[in-house]
Amino acid sequence: MPGQEMALQNSTSKVKRFVREVRAEMKKVSWPTRQELLAYTAVVFVSVVLVSALIWVIDGGLSILLRSFIH
């Protein structure tokens, strides 16, 4: 079945080309330093904690407000 073999070779060459192109693009990426990565991680962590606390406070406030209307 020559058609299937040709299709398989075509698929294999496309995958190899894709991987080569991805590797070439990844070399162009400006990766953060360890220090930058730690700083960015800290910013994200603190932001998540603050937004979570804000949502918790708003949720608690609305719960109290709604309970006072119901009773």
TrEMBL record:
A Pfam family recorded for this sequence: SecE
GO cellular component: plasma membrane
Membrane topology recorded in Swiss-Prot or TrEMBL: Single-pass membrane protein
Top-rank lineage group of the source organism: Bacteria
GO molecular function list: protein transmembrane transporter activity
Main location (coarse class): membrane
Gene3D superfamilies linked: Preprotein translocase secy subunit
Entry keyword set: Cell membrane, Membrane, Protein transport, Translocation, Transmembrane, Transmembrane helix, Transport
Family, per entry: Belongs to the SecE/SEC61-gamma family.
Subunit field text: Component of the Sec protein translocase complex. Heterotrimer consisting of SecY, SecE and SecG subunits. The heterotrimers can form oligomers, although 1 heterotrimer is thought to be able to translocate proteins. Interacts with the ribosome. Interacts with SecDF, and other proteins may be involved. Interacts with SecA.
NCBIfam families (alphabetical): secE_bact
Protein's name in the database: Protein translocase subunit SecE
Annotated source species: Acetonema longum DSM 6540
Lineage of the organism: Bacteria, Bacillati, Bacillota, Negativicutes, Acetonemataceae
